[in-house]
Amino acid sequence: MIEILSGQDLIDAGMSQGKWFRPALDAANKKLSEGGSVAEALEAAKAFQPGPMLALRADNDIEIYSNIRAENAFEQDNVEKVNATMRALVRTPVVRSAAIMPDACPAGPVGTIPVGGVVASEAIHPGMHSADICCSMAISIFPGVDPKSLLDAVHSVTHFGPGGRPRGAQIKPSEETLLAFQQNPYLREGPLNLAVDQFATQGDGNHFAYVGTMKSTGETALVTHHGSRAPGARLYEKGMTVANKFRERLSPETHRENAWIPAETEEGEFYWSALQIIRQWTKENHYALHDMAAAKLSAKVADRFWNEHNFVFRKSDGLFYHGKGATPAFENWAPDATDLTIIPLNMAEPVLIVRGSNAAHGLGFSPHGAGRNFSRSTHMRQLAAEYGADSRGLSPNNIAAILAKETSGLDARFFSGFVDASELPSAYKSAANVRAQIEHYGLAEVVDELIPFGCIMAGDWQRDAPWRKKRR
């Protein structure tokens, strides 16, 4: 009886030698150690045998539905860059269709899915939901509550910035969610601990807590914006590692960020399950903060709903629809879906409550916000030039003047104590233009608005970083 298979055994069985022999032998010998037959062991090895290499698609093989138009020269440059990266992306062999939203902007080297990109594929592409898995919006209505009181309450219970809450002040997600983390091989190590460390926190960047009044009723509401934080980022890293192993076997010419995990494999099934668990964690994260604010005020929440805009959805056609900064606008996009979704614009503009139109030319998606025409660093350089700042950048007086000008009449707060000028309204595309294009392309219907009172963002938490002080 053979106790262990060698590479020669695989060759004798008609398999072509290659790098795949090592994992194939590991799987085959594991099967033998579990009492399997030689025939069963060889079948286990064959599962690792590379299939035929998949060539990149030719240019223009896949149609890209464009739902964006340039309103000025800056936007024209942005649109051209978005189109270029999408044309490179859709050469990926398993991609079936793609769309561009009105708020689209580049997010990496050519070939990387842009923010405001939608891609339908036969497989799951971790790079197309990015590290900020399930970046999402949640709204809760607080009838009879004063907006300032709600903003004060949220400020007292939320947490922005790097890392999680201090030891001793941590808040646990539900036992059901923690058990799901423990049972999934992508989540049980690393992400599981982070799921506790970073629960009820909001991170940094463009994430926020926004308070305003509903245009239709005058009731006060809270909207939060954040993703899955470090637990999602770790899942993304693991997913990219697995996807790139498949890419090397199946389509080495494919852009690394567009590598995919075949859905029908064990790796694909566990990854899809992990995405749903991360989604549940993120939803709980939103509502934990809302509930803490309600408890602080001894108030009741009358209504609430939420939606992600950085995720992967599977439709009845069997394809996986990747929305990178794109809001689902088709019916029953998730088991907990309502007919309404949330689109923020910037801190000085209303948050839009919309009903999706399931437009075919948008692949069933709508925008997720106002988007950017420039990177944060470029925007900061432009502000510095406008305000006559020297090579050291904007002064505190400059920043105070910009804040006063761009958020006049609003209660704009920064959790770190330092204003992040790269997140002020001028950093984003024209809210009016984005709204006009949503209507022009028929991507969604605006049914209500949340009129701004104030918001909280992380702010420039790196302001006193040693490297910043040294440069100053």
From TrEMBL:
Could you name the active-site residues? Answer: 368
Keyword Ribosomal protein listed: no
Q: Which UniProt keywords apply?
A: GTP-binding, Ligase, Manganese, Metal-binding, Nucleotide-binding, RNA repair
Q: Fetch the InterPro entries from UniProt.
A: RtcB (IPR001233), RtcB-like (IPR052915), RtcB-like_sf (IPR036025)
Q: Where does GMP bind?
A: 344-347, 368-371
Report which reactions are catalysed by this protein.
a 3'-end 3'-phospho-ribonucleotide-RNA + a 5'-end dephospho-ribonucleoside-RNA + GTP = a ribonucleotidyl-ribonucleotide-RNA + GMP + diphosphate
Q: Which residues bind Mn(2+)?
A: 225
Biological process GO annotation list? DNA repair; RNA processing; RNA repair
Q: Which EC numbers does the record give? A: 6.5.1.8
Identify the SUPFAM superfamilies for this entry. Answer: Hypothetical protein PH1602
Q: What is a GO molecular function of this protein?
A: manganese ion binding
Identify one Pfam family in the record.
RtcB
Which parts pass through the membrane? none
Cofactor remark: Binds 2 manganese ions per subunit.
Q: Which domain of life is it from?
A: Bacteria
Which cofactors does this protein require? Mn(2+)
Q: What is this protein called?
A: 3'-phosphate/5'-hydroxy nucleic acid ligase
Q: Which organism is it from?
A: Allorhizobium taibaishanense
